[in-house]
Every structure is written in C-alpha cells, then in structure tokens.
Amino acid sequence: MADKAKVGTMWLGGCSGCHLSIADFHESLLDVLELAQFEFSPVLCDTKYDEVPELDVLIVEGGIRNEENRELAEMLREKAGLVIAYGTCAAYGGIPGLGNLHTVEELTTEGYINSCSTVNPEGIIPNEDVPTLESRVRPLGEAIQVDLLIPGCPPKSDVVAEAILTLLNGGTIELPTTNLCEVCPREKPPAGLAMDFIKRQFEVGKPEDDLCLIAQGLVCMGPATVSLCGAQCPSIAIPCRGCYGPTAKVNDAGAKMISAIASDYGINEDKTVDPEQVADQLDDIVGTFYTYTLPAALVPAKMQKGGK
Amino acid sequence: MSEDIKIVMFCCNWCSYGGADTAGTARMQYPPNIRVIRVMCSGRIDPQFILKAFRDGADGVFVAGCHMGDCHYDAGNYKLDRRMRLVYKLVEDMGIGRERVHHDWISASEGEKFASSVKMMVNRIKDLGPSPLKAQLDAEG
Known about the structure:
The complex is a heterodimer of chains A (308) and B (141).
Chain A (H helix, E strand, L loop, with lengths): L4 E7 L5 H7 L4 H8 E5 L14 E7 L2 E3 H13 E7 L1 H5 L11 H11 L18 E6 L9 E3 L6 H12 L11 H4 L17 H4 L27 H4 L17 H12 L11 H6 L3 H5 L19
Parallel strand pairs in A: 1-2, 1-3, 3-5, 5-7
Antiparallel strand pairs in A: 4-6
Chain B lengths: L6 E6 L3 H10 L8 E6 L7 H9 L4 E6 L10 H18 L7 E5 L5 H18 L3 H9 L1
Parallel strand pairs in B: 1-2, 1-3, 3-4
Helix pairs in contact in B: 1-4
C-alpha cells in the first residue's frame, strides 16, 4: 500500500461532470488502483480541508470563479507534486466563462433576484458565508502553476485513464498538435472547402453523410479544436462546438475560427460575394466562437462603458 | 493622456506599406501615434493579431491592404474584408468598441491617403481615449 502513488482530485468552478468521467473509468479503474489510491477527493470520500495529505498527483476540475476557489487552489498546490488542470473549465475557463460578458453585479442580481425560479421579494443578495465572486472567471493556470492540461467537457474517460496510467508509470504525456479535421471521418469537397451560407442545424435537417459539415453551411469548430476527442460529434453529424479547446499553437480559439469561417465563406465567388453577408448570418459571435474558451482568450472579459 | 495613444497599423507589403513609403519620401506630415507592422498580404492578418494588439495595450488597430482587385495574391484582401466584418461585431460585443478598429484600402501611390487615413484614425482614437482593456486588466492585477 505504501508504494502506491497518492492521487487527489478537486472540484472548483466546474459542474462535477469531469469527475463523472473519472467515475466512468470502468475496467481501467482496476489498473489505476494497482498503482495509485485516491487520498483526497470531495466527490468520492469524506474530506477535510484542514487535513489534506501530501499528494503526488492532484487533478483539478473547474476554473477560478470565486475567492474560495482561489484559496483552495493555492492551498492544494502546496500539497501536490503535480497539478493537472483537468477539463476545459480548468484549462480555458469553460462555459462558466461566458459569465465574463457581464459584471459581477449583473450576475448576482440575475442569480439572486431576477431569475424566475427565485423567490426573493426583499431582494436580498447574500453577502455573508458565501464566497465573493471574483471580477471574472479565470483558467486555473492564472491562479497557480499547472503542470499539465487535459481539456475536454468532459475529457473522455479513456483519454484520462490513459494519461493517468502513463503518468503513474513514469511516462510523458503529449497532447495532439493537430486539429479535429485531421481525425474527422468526413470528407472535404474535392474542389476545396467552401461555404455558401451559414445555417443552424435545425435549418439544415439531417446533414449529408460523409461530407464536411462546414461545406454544408454548419459552423463546426473542428478547424480550431484539438483532436483529442477523436471527432466524436462530427462523426454523428453534430457540428463540433470546440469543447476541447484549441491546439497549443493557437492563442485564441475564437479568433482563429473567425479567420477560418470568414475565409471559407463564399471563397469560390471571392470577388462578388457581399462581405457583409457572413457577419449578417452570424448573430452571436462570442457565444458561437468562444463558448468554452472566453476566459483564456486575448480579450478575456467584456469591457464596460462601451470602450470609453 | 490622449496624446499618448498608440495605434497598431498592419500594412500589406505590396500596396499599403508602399503607400507609407510614398508618404515618407514625399515628407507628408502625420501624427506619430501609429506603429506600422508589415505583413506580406492583408489576407495574412488573423483576428488574433488584432486582439493581441489590444491585449498588449494598443488603443486602436488599423488594417490596410490593396484596393479590391489589386491584391498581389489575387484575393487576399477579399478574405480580410469578410473577416473584418466579423471582427467589428466581436470587438463591439466585447465592449472594446467598433470604432477602435478600422480597415481601408491604400495603394502604393496613395501617400496622401495614407497620411490622411492615419490622421483620421488618430483623431478618432484620441476622442475615444485610451483603450479600456489594459486599464481593466491592470486594475484586476
């Protein structure tokens, strides 16, 4: 028992979905438990923050949303040999990061007063015994030093199991450097990738089999997304939403995707297509292109006062 | 404060950078708030470059390329044109402001247009004041 590596998991500003991915290890769990034991995990065991053991590997899910997240992240960093930012929220901020489009005040008012499921006639916003929200969501790497990113929403169980087993066996982990299109089974049109219109899935209906979704007018984030998931969604005719984040070469997944879509759009009639058309057909630029990566983007939050 | 503004300008090698040269050799006057970055084609300009300029403290970004039909590589500027329409929407949505980004076509012979466009952009950004991004990120620490 004493030889086993001590693994801890932690859950910060996320939804616990990534922990389900660990719980879903299936038979690989036996292999992992051969080499390691879970010493600290709020999801699996009864844990006390003042009795955190020294850990060899710490797997952290979720970004930094509030002061408590930051405090726990810093405390656990001290205890852990190796910290893995696990899941897209820890790596890039994830979906909670879209909260960066609003001020903290707007978020608390909406959450505690305006939302229709809330009964709060006196309009009280709790300010005691609840952690204060930070000004914006940040990826884990902006609060503490992170040794490895395993993105995904959630990361596939077999990817995580393999990564953890490789680590425990002393190997090194390399994330793919290619984008999703490299592993996507759909074929690009022989004449080159071109988009004549942008549509949403319900307008297209069932997309054609085997043909690239972008060529069929769907905004598929594949060109700006890392190929870690094996193109699961495009394989079953669902456009990629970019939940694994970009490859390491890209600073800003949304900007990269804007570049790709604007170039592909009407590329065959480059000189005659109305340049405004592509912008007209895309309403929610931030929501479409930055669904998972806003806090890690070059402009990580909405500026107030209209840029003045 | 408004005297210290910085504008990053991307110029394509074949037309707009030539336009800057023409303005220079003809000794046309324009404000010194501009920092020109030469790229081979305006079609090479990734929205990441524009956002990175803002992230690193630019108060405005000006992108210039060849006139339509003049692109050295045939159609790079058409692609930029479409891309910029999305960038305008993005910077507006992110609260940086549509006005802080501008794109225009300047040929190698248009030194006059280079100088006047730079003047126009500098005046526009001076009216808006410094970019909120750097201030907000600095304030957050």
